[in-house]
Amino acid sequence: GVLINSYVTDKKVYGYLVTDSIKAIISLSGMEFYQALSLMVNKVVVFTKVSSGRSPMIALKVAPIKPPIVVFHRPVNLDPLALELSESENMTVIVSTKAHEEDLVKGLKSLLVET
């Protein structure tokens, strides 16, 4: 992946969650989204099917719990507001350049450390 913003977290992360950004925005209520975020403490959140990153970042801005790292899988065009929000909310943003979501998940799995 490619680091997009200037903020780089020093927090340790303990896993990841991959979610379809369009389905999450359309199908989850605000409370369901917050409940999902509560499971994401110190985890990387990966949004797939991202066009600009604006909607996921706005949702994360108003969320009480924020992931330290957000990954956008192959966004069409990153919105400057998404980057500005990531900076102001202290979230590291990475753009995945993997061709397929399956390749992205394989890469994430290879990074996991067994305890």
Quick structural summary:
By secondary structure, the protein is α/β, with parallel strands linked by helices. Helix content is 39%, strand content 19%.
Write the layout of secondary structure elements.
Layout: E1 2-3, E2 16-20, H1 21-27, H2 30-38, E3 44-48, H3 54-62, E4 69-73, H4 80-88, E5 92-96, H5 101-111
Main features:
Udp-n-acetylmuramoylalanyl-d-glutamate--2,6- Diaminopimelate Ligase, Chain: A, domain 1; about 120 residues; five-stranded mixed β-sheet; alpha/beta; 5 helices; about 40% helix; 5 strands
How would you describe this structure to a colleague?
The protein has 115 residues and is an alpha/beta fold. It has one domain: 3-Layer(aba) Sandwich (Udp-n-acetylmuramoylalanyl-d-glutamate--2,6- Diaminopimelate Ligase, Chain: A, domain 1). It is built from 5 helices and 5 strands. It has a 5-stranded mixed β-sheet, sandwiched between helices. Helix 4 links the parallel strand 4 and strand 5. The radius of gyration is 13 Å and the shape is globular. It starts with a strand and ends with a helix. The mean pLDDT is 90.
